[in-house]
Amino acid sequence: MGKPKITIIPYSSTYDTQTVEMWRESKENAIGQKEGHSFEDHVYFLNYLLPKEYTIELALIDHHVVGMIAYNDHEISQLYIHLDYQGIGIGTALLARAKEQSSGKLTLYTFEVNKQAQAFYEKHGFQIIGRGHENEEGLPDLLYEWILDTSH
Is this entry keyworded Transferase (predicted)? Predict the structure, then answer.
């Protein structure tokens, strides 16, 4: 059995329940903390607030949401991969989309407790440029930055 075929599509609200279920499970697993917002509020955020500032794309395998990213030309707001599908290149593919559409520089925050995410971003050329805890979860976080290498 080879690698599953991953399709990346623009976000559609058809997938809102699947996306929020995957997002919440992945985030909870990463930070060891339950989501503070109700499921309905999370769906509303995904459908109505996040798209105002960010392009949202989904990674699908057989019409099942296995990853999501929300980004604009200078920032990645969200990147989550289904727990059962981590480590097979979905995050890398979604991150590549954000890099291609970027202004040549991207920033993102990740939680200090999420060592897996830190290793992933550092492997993909991101460097820590700040620390803080300006988030709803009240957890220390890291500000990462990626700059397009134009030296080649």
Answer: yes
Cα radius of gyration (the chain): 15
Tokens of 25: 């499970």
| Nearest partner of 65 among 54, 50, 81, judged by Cα | 81
Edge-to-edge strands, sheet with 7-10? 7-10, 55-61, 64-71, 76-81
Distance CA 25, CA 12 (A): 20
Residue type, 48: Y
pTM of the model: 0.93
Span 59-107, pLDDT tens digits: 999 999 999 999 999 999 999 999 999 999 999 999 999 999 999 999 9
Superfamily of domain 7-147, CATH level 4? Gcn5-related N-acetyltransferase (GNAT) (3.40.630.30)
